[in-house]
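agent> fetching stored inputs for the pyridoxal-5'-phosphate docking request
agent> found them:
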Amino acid sequence: MLAKRYTGKKLVDNIFATSKKAKQAIVKFGKENVINATIGSLYDEDEKLAVYDVVESVYRNLPPEDLYAYATNVIGEDDYLEEVIKALLFEDYKEKLKGLYIASVATTGGTGAISNTIKNYMDTGDKVLLPNWMWGTYKNIAIENGGQIETYQLFDKNGDFNFEDFKDKVLELAKTQKNIVIIINEPSHNPTGFRMTYEEWVKVIEFIETIKDNNLIIIRDVAYFEYDNRNEKENRKIRELVIGLPKNILVIYAFSLSKALSIYGMRIGAQIAVSSDEKVIQEFKDANAFSCRTTWSNVPKGGMKLFATIMKNPELKAKFIKEKQTYIALLSERAKIFLTEAKEENLEILPYKSGFFITVPIGETVDKVIEDLESKNIFVIKFDTGIRIGICSVPKKKIKGLAKKIKESIEKFKNQ
Ligand SMILES: Cc1ncc(COP(=O)(O)O)c(C=O)c1O
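agent> prediction call returned; pasting tokens
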């Protein structure tokens, strides 16, 4: 019955499925006896969804027409579109990024931003370049749009960004396709918490500038950037690396309010496109507005108004930043417990710098290890041949001792 291009599609969403198992275990054995490290949302120490006080109070006080009416434009509210650019590229972006053309489009979360971008820039049959450790939905979006995937090794043997493999894969794709869509998920990479250094970014930018005969569309997935602790000076320096990029390079940031404001279910995000060419940006706006209209039409006005109201009001913004700092501190305390214990236990982990997740590489016995952990009421997410621990949702008291339990499970199957 399905259209030919859609036959064989079946969503295997490992995250939602494992999360369900964890919830069932909680019902059976009680919350205190289960470690549910499957959740990808920020939870507080009482294992409740982290809700910002400022978000709650602003949202509840929005006028009804802001909550129930259609958005003003298909691509989103004007003030929202401006505030997302400022949140990412700083207040002074017009002055500091002079010469660049910048536009934003509101999307249904970061997912909508990535799918709009792949849909509009990947040619049918082409490959999208992804890191080998990745959020699995990227792959599905490529497939949904008639594409395929290629992966670059995210890490080299020192645990740094594997520039050589990245470069080789781009050059390889450049031989066979005109457009190359590339995803770099950074900072607070899912599933590892990896972050690139400024020097690594410089290398990437210097390399892509040498590509003359292809169009490069760099999606920088910044879904978790609000919870990263890279200093502002470095963030500003990285922002400025796009100045002077030739017009065959288009950078599109995928922005997510799910994480930024902890409003996952509201489904708000944005594509923020930056180019040295006005026509490229006009085309971006035209094509993506068309895609918005034909898929979700427009995104909830209330979520956009919520963000714009907080960001435009210095007092509310200060409250938001203050609350956010407490969550960043909480994440770093949780990470510290796990990382310290992992070191004591000699448990290998992938390079973690910040964010919601830590990944333990396991190898071929990964399924056995997961099964063993589940038998002990510890639920984690399988990513390739590793397991992802969502430190975003596990309270400190349950993180204590977790590295040891994981190590024991790994050891159990080591020589099998
Ligand atoms: C790496 C990454 N990018 C993007 C998203 C998109 O999130 P949302 O569509 O809720 O904004 C997620 C969500 O889990 C993610 O992990």
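agent> quick read of the result: The chain has two domains: 4-53+317-412, 56-313.
agent> awaiting further instructions
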